[in-house]
Design brief:
Layout: E1 6-12, E2 27-28, E3 31-32, H1 33-41, E4 46-53, H2 57-66, E5 70-73, H3 81-91, E6 98-103, H4 111-123, E7 129-134, E8 137-138, E9 143-145, H5 149-154, H6 160-167, E10 170-174, H7 187-198, H8 205-216, H9 220-243, H10 250-259, H11 269-279, H12 284-292, H13 306-315, E11 317-318, E12 321-322, H14 325-335, H15 340-364, H16 368-371
Parallel strand pairs: 1-4, 1-6, 4-5, 7-10
Antiparallel strand pairs: 2-3, 6-9, 7-8, 7-9, 11-12
């Protein structure tokens, strides 16, 4: 199958009238907003990126061209965003098979979303528009087939691009990316985006919930177990922080708990789940929890970690119900009657779990059964 030629149109022509600064040049994560938007499409199968300029266009042009993208000026940018859509789409290479459209004020889309949209495009031959969605809300950037170029070029602008998308054959593509809904049109929205950026390498609580269902394909048993482990994890983490404020990252621990079994049923499920999350772009702090939730050796005299809290919660939850640690391992030990090797492995894990649970209980300062 021939490789499809993919383009991207980034809309950066507006005056930013509702924002205190000029949106394309606002800082976020050590870069400017326009740099983040350009970087989103680099090295991800997008061969032709076009940035539509207007207001302060000559100031932006060097930054666009330095990033390897093409700058196109829309002299009619004051007529509305759709005129910039038309200018950008017209400037795309004639060989373009499909293209993204991204307003510059949506700067935090995850690269994973781009990969997922392109994957669906390659498999779906019937639809013209691919809309990313998060919890049933559609966001940016839409991916459009080049068959819509002529319709965009001849449209009179009524209803903007949305009107064209409403009349095209469209499919929603669920993505575990809350940031497709986050814009920076106003100062308040920009401040919220900066807050999200501080934790960008970790899934938001909503993203973790979506990832759980997405990765496990809605498996009810895994979902129920993971949510119960997350509930126990949160109680333990909050108790530890009540005694030693800030010693535990509660959101990180809860995310790790929700996602610890996303590869359950697959070979080496802990390592496999961690690799899945790494491929999504998430931080080692999260992938380590998932990789080590079944077998973990803490450093002696070191502070209790988020990994140990999730490990403990997982051992105290069987299915979706709470169990005693000794009851859990005693049942496993008895199940291997006559299998000396398997029983030795159970005893090793039992001893390891007992040590970790004792460490977590000590950090909590109260018996765990009083918390759970």
């Amino acid at each position: 199958m021939p490789t499809q030629k993919i383009g991207a149109v980034i809309l950066a022509a507006g005056r930013s009238t509702r924002q205190r600064g000029f949106k394309p040049l606002l800082p976020i994560g050590g870069q400017t907003v326009i740099q983040r938007c350009l970087e989103l499409f680099q090295h991800r199968g997008v061969a032709d990126s076009v940035v539509v300029l207007g207001y302060r266009g000559e100031e932006l042009r060097p930054k666009v061209e330095k990033a390897g993208a093409r700058a196109v000026v829309n002299p009619d940018f004051d007529q509305g965003m759709f005129s910039s859509v038309q200018a950008g789409v017209a400037a795309l290479s004639p060989e373009t098979d499909a293209f993204f459209v991204l307003p510059v004020d949506i700067p935090l889309v995850r690269p994973l979303t781009i990969r997922l949209l392109l994957r669906v495009l390659a498999l779906n031959k019937s639809n013209e528009v691919f809309l990313p969605s998060f919890q049933d809300q559609t966001g940016h950037p839409p991916l459009l087939r080049a068959t819509l170029r002529s319709r965009i070029a001849t449209h009179d602008g009524t209803g903007g691009l949305r009107r064209i998308l409403e009349t095209a054959s469209t499919v929603q593509v669920p993505v575990p990316d809350q940031h497709i809904l986050v814009d920076i049109d106003t100062p308040t929205q920009y401040e919220y985006a900066l807050t999200l950026w501080q934790r960008y390498c970790l899934p938001t609580p909503q993203e973790a919930e979506v990832l759980l269902d997405w990765e496990t394909k809605g498996d009810a048993d895994i979902s129920a177990h993971s949510r119960q482990v997350a509930s126990v994890t949160k109680r333990l983490a909050l108790q530890i922080n009540s005694r030693n404020p800030g010693s535990v990252d509660v959101d990180l621990a809860v995310a790790g708990a929700l996602l610890h079994d996303i590869a359950k049923g697959q070979p080496r499920h802990a390592d496999t789940g961690a690799k899945h999350l790494k491929a999504c772009g998430f931080a080692p702090a999260l992938t380590a929890i998932v990789a080590q939730h079944a077998d973990y050796e803490p450093e002696e005299k070191s502070p209790v970690t988020e990994t140990e809290i999730v490990y403990t919660a997982d051992k105290l939850v069987q299915g979706s119900r709470l169990v005693g640690l000794d009851d859990r391992f005693r049942a496993k030990y008895e199940a291997f009657a006559g299998n000396t090797h398997a029983r030795q492995a159970v005893l090793r894990r039992w001893k390891q779990a007992s040590q970790i649970v004792q460490r977590v209980e000590h950090a909590c300062g109260v018996p765990l059964d009083t918390l759970l």
